[in-house]
């Protein structure tokens, strides 16, 4: 789905015939095509087989599920398939971590990537595997910055194992974010909460989401919006009465359920970065929709608000409705957003909130 968005502006597919071939001028459009990337990797692997390599260096090149190692001794050059680095990872973001673990005996391991996802996954890997020699390189040769991942995990303590879940839940390439709630806001509001850190740490432990995790997610979202509440529907109602702006309100419980399942799905994949074969369930089963156009989000299964709210007109009557009441003139009932008070004859009766009847820990 994300690749389709990135390629929406157009792609440039071309065949790679030889090393003398000129590079495409629109390099980003060239890379936006998956077919071009496959060709490029095949070309690189072929060139390693045919080129003279520098003594003392070993190169690893991946192509589809396979990983090839190339090196040159005193007299001969070899290229072999490395069985323990064969994997079914779809993204390089996680596959990189297999190579990090394979090289963990070396004194210095540097990942070259500007991707935030890679940094977050690397922090999680370093924390759980107690890596003390892992670094991340950002920028170009002229402006390069080296970040010590191992020092980050040591400095941030319990935030380190929670960061990968926090990153997915608060929004990443594949998961939408909460309106107006950037990463800094999320960390400032939730980074010091023991309940929130426990929730984020346990996110992605399994591809299945439990009712207990949904309850915890509700409380965390209420805390994110600055409310001392545990039910997002009730928090949404309170904020609706105070502002009426949907962009400032938390999601409904129904929408949060789907968001949680998507975030858990992505986090589970990232947490299995140290496993060669992840065996990822189909996304259609985990809150995405699939059709002839590809994948799309399954946002919710219920209306975002009652029909009376969706057809809302707010009046400014101070005590009761009058002939000038905008609600009454449009045949709509007054609501809590109106200023007319509880004694207004045109008030709508608010139905009771749906209560959760099942507090079990069953999978959602």
Name the strands of the widest sheet in spatial order. 1-2-3
Helix content: 25-40%
Determine the structural class based on helices, strands and strand pairing: alpha+beta
* Helix run count: 14
Radius of gyration from CA coordinates: 26 Å
Strand runs, count: 8
Compute the average pLDDT.
Answer: 84
List the quaternary state of the chains. Answer: single chain
Shape: elongated
Order of helices and strands: HHHEEEHEHEEHHHHHHHEEHH
Sheet having the most strands: 3 strands, antiparallel
Strand content: 5-15%
The low-confidence runs, each spanning 5 or more residues with pLDDT under 50, are none
Euclidean distance between termini CA atoms: 24 Å
How is this structure best described in words?
- The protein is of the alpha+beta class and 364 residues long.
- It is elongated.
- The mean pLDDT is 84.
- The strands form three sheets. A three-stranded antiparallel beta sheet has the order 1-2-3, covered by helices on one side. The protein has a three-stranded mixed beta sheet with strand order 4-5-6. It has a two-stranded antiparallel sheet with strand order 7-8.
- It has helices at 2-6, 27-31, 34-50, 92-102, 116-129, 149-156, 159-169, 183-190, 194-202, 211-224, 232-242, 253-271, 307-310, 326-329, and strands at residues 58-63, 66-72, 77-81, 109-112, 134-139, 144-148, 288-291, 294-297.
- Among the domains are: 1-86, no CATH class; 306-355, no CATH class.
- Helix 5 packs across helix 6 (149-156).
């Amino acid at each position: 789905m994300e690749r389709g968005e990135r390629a929406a502006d157009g792609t440039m597919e071309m065949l790679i015939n030889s090393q003398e071939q000129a590079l495409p001028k629109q390099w980003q459009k060239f890379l936006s095509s998956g077919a071009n990337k496959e060709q490029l990797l095949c070309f690189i692997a072929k060139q390693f087989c045919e080129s003279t390599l520098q003594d003392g260096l070993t190169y690893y090149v991946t192509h589809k599920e396979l990983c090839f190692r190339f090196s040159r001794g005193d007299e001969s050059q070899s290229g072999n398939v490395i069985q323990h680095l064969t994997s079914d990872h779809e993204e390089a973001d996680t596959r990189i971590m297999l190579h990090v673990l394979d090289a963990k005996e070396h004194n210095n391991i540097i990942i070259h990537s500007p991707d935030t996802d890679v940094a977050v996954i690397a922090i999680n890997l370093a924390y759980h595997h107690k890596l003390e020699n892992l670094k991340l390189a950002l920028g170009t040769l002229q402006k390069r910055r080296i970040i010590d991942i191992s020092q980050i995990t040591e400095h941030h303590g319990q935030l380190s194992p929670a960061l990968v879940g926090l990153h997915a839940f608060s929004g990443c390439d594949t998961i939408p974010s909460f309106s107006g709630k950037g990463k800094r806001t999320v960390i400032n509001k939730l980074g010091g909460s023991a309940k929130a850190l426990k929730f984020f740490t346990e996110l992605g432990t399994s591809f299945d989401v439990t009712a207990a995790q949904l309850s915890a997610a509700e409380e965390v979202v209420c805390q994110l919006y600055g409310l001392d509440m545990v039910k997002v529907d009730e928090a949404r109602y309170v904020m609706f009465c105070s502002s009426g702006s949907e962009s400032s309100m938390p999601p409904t419980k129904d929408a949060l359920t789907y968001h949680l399942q998507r975030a858990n799905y992505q986090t589970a994949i990232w947490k299995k970065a140290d496993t060669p074969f992840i065996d990822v369930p189909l996304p259609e089963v985990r809150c995405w929709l699939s059709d002839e156009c590809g994948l799309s989000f399954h946002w919710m299964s219920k209306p975002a608000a009652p029909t009376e709210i969706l057809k809302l007109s707010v009046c400014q009557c101070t005590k009761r409705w009058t002939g000038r009441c905008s609600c009454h003139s449009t045949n709509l009932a007054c609501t809590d957003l109106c200023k007319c008070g509880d004694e207004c004859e045109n008030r709508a009766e608010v139905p009771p909130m749906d209560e959760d009847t099942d507090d079990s820990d069953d999978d959602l």
